[in-house]
Amino acid sequence: MDKVVHKKLSYKIVGLLFENHKTLGRYKNEKQYADHFEQLLNRENIKYVREYRFEDSQYGQNKIRCICDFIIDDKIILEFKAKNFITTEDYYQVKRYLTTLNLQLGILVNFRQNRIVPKRILNSQFYEHNSNLQMYSNITNE
User: Fold this and answer.
1) Which of the residues 94, 100, 131, 134 could staple to 106 if both were Cys, CB 3.0 to 4.6 A apart?
2) Model pTM?
3) Does the pLDDT of residue 36 top 50, yes or no?
4) Closest-CA residue to 109 (of 3, 26, 6)
5) Burial letters for 57-71: b for 16+ Cβ neighbours within 10 Å, e otherwise?
6) Average pLDDT, stretch 91-100?
7) Which residues, 6 or more positions from 38, have their beta carbon under 8 angstroms from its beta carbon?
8) Architecture of domain 7-122
9) What pairing do the DSSP bridges indicate for beta strands 64-72 and 119-122?
């Protein structure tokens, strides 16, 4: 099986991530990378939601408040980091977001490295006809 999930869109996003890193370098903070990336998304007319807030209550009564950096075109979660290295907790964070929102693909990127290596993370529990993500129809790229 040679299928890449959201191939065209994810390749476009990765290209913008490389452009973002090339422009800003490796010593900015997450917000600066996200601000510039948002400008790139607007330039390319790609639909997105920034800092999507939701609660994860799948593990009992304790609700975890989550903020996802970007959700691109109601399909891909994008999580930014700006630290020395990615940890397993960062990976699990994206997996948790994917399963809670029932999205198929997440991309985790650390801008602190000399060369960025975006990590594609798939949701093995994805079920196609019932997304938990409730995008707002009145959100536009501004």
Assistant:
1) 94
2) 0.84
3) yes
4) 26
5) eeeeeeeeeeebbbb
6) 94
7) 48, 50
8) 3-Layer(aba) Sandwich (3.40)
9) unpaired
